[in-house]
């Protein structure tokens, strides 16, 4: 069971808020912990990034685009359960990429296990209208909050099977990179032109709290 605290505007908190609570069991096939991550493990995400954060921010700022930016909020428990039941302990780590975005999760991985993370920029999908909103507000989508995204770190031999399952739900599910014994405790991202750069950790939140 978990809980959270909400800060609301004066006079806006006069009703009941039920938030972030759940009861469950540890699946017998699951062995998910950050220490299980190994060199050459594949990193997979299930949907395009930054949609939730930019849906909230564009609404706050009154930005209008050709099509609305929709939050990525979805129910993840069934797809996560399906993958655990099929692949068991070959799934080494699962984490939602909420506050701090995709980068914050990957930096946690890199620093905790003292290995590197190598990403392919063109594999990290961002919807066009989300890109536009990020450009207008001067934000990097790698750091923008998500709500319905999970990061899978899994044994490389199950990559194709995992993607086949995820892409039945969202065709943009993608293997975005891998764990490496180079670049220890760092994230390196390679552009479509072959250039490489370091992705720095987020020191301060780059936008106001949205959740």
Features:
single chain; 211 residues; alpha+beta; Phosphoribosyl-aminoimidazole Synthetase, Chain A, domain 2; 5 helices; 27% helix; 16% strand; globular
Secondary-structure map:
Layout: E1 42-45, H1 51-61, H2 77-87, E2 91-96, H3 101-113, E3 116-120, H4 128-137, E4 150-154, H5 159-169, E5 174-180, E6 187-190, E7 196-198
Parallel strand pairs: 3-6
Antiparallel strand pairs: 1-4, 1-5, 2-4, 3-5, 6-7
Structure description:
With 211 residues, the protein is of the alpha+beta class. The protein has helices at residues 51-61, 77-87, 101-113, 128-137, 159-169; strands spanning 42-45, 91-96, 116-120, 150-154, 174-180, 187-190, 196-198. It starts with 41 loop residues before the first strand and ends in a 13-residue tail after the last strand. It has one domain (37-198): Phosphoribosyl-aminoimidazole Synthetase, Chain A, domain 2. It is globular. The mean pLDDT is 88. It has a seven-stranded mixed β-sheet with strand order 2-4-1-5-3-6-7. The protein has five helices and seven strands. Strand 6 (187-190) and strand 7 (196-198) form a beta hairpin.
Q: Which geometry do the CA atoms define?
A: globular
Query: Termini distance?
Result: 19 Å
Low-confidence stretches: none
Beta-strand content? 15-25%
Q: What is the annotated CATH architecture?
A: Alpha-Beta Complex
| Count of separate structural domains | 1
User: How do the strands of the widest beta sheet line up side by side?
Assistant: 2-4-1-5-3-6-7
SS field, number of helical segments: 5
Main sheet record: 7 strands, mixed
- Topology as H/E string? EHHEHEHEHEEE
Task: Supply the CATH superfamily name.
Answer: PurM-like C-terminal domain
């Amino acid at each position: 069971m978990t809980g959270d605290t909400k800060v609301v505007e004066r006079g806006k908190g006069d009703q009941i808020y039920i938030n972030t609570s759940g009861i469950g069991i540890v699946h017998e096939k699951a062995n998910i912990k950050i220490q299980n991550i190994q060199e050459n493990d594949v990193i997979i995400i299930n949907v395009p990034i930054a949609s939730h954060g930019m849906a909230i921010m564009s609404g706050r700022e009154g930005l209008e685009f050709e099509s609305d930016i929709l939050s990525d909020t979805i129910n993840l428990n069934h797809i996560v359960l399906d993958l655990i039941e099929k692949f068991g302990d070959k799934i080494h780590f699962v984490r939602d990429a909420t506050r701090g975005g995709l980068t914050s999760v990957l930096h946690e991985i890199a620093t905790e296990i003292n290995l590197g993370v190598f990403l392919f920029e063109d594999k990290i999908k961002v919807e066009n209208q989300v890109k536009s909103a990020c450009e207008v507000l001067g934000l990097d989508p790698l750091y923008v909050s998500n709500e319905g995204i999970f990061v899978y770190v899994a044994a490389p031999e199950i990559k194709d099977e995992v993607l086949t399952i995820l892409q039945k739900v969202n065709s943009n599910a993608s293997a975005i990179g891998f764990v490496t014994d180079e670049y220890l405790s760092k994230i390196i991202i390679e552009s479509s032109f072959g250039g490489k750069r370091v992705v720095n950790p987020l020191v301060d939140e780059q936008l106001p709290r949205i959740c």
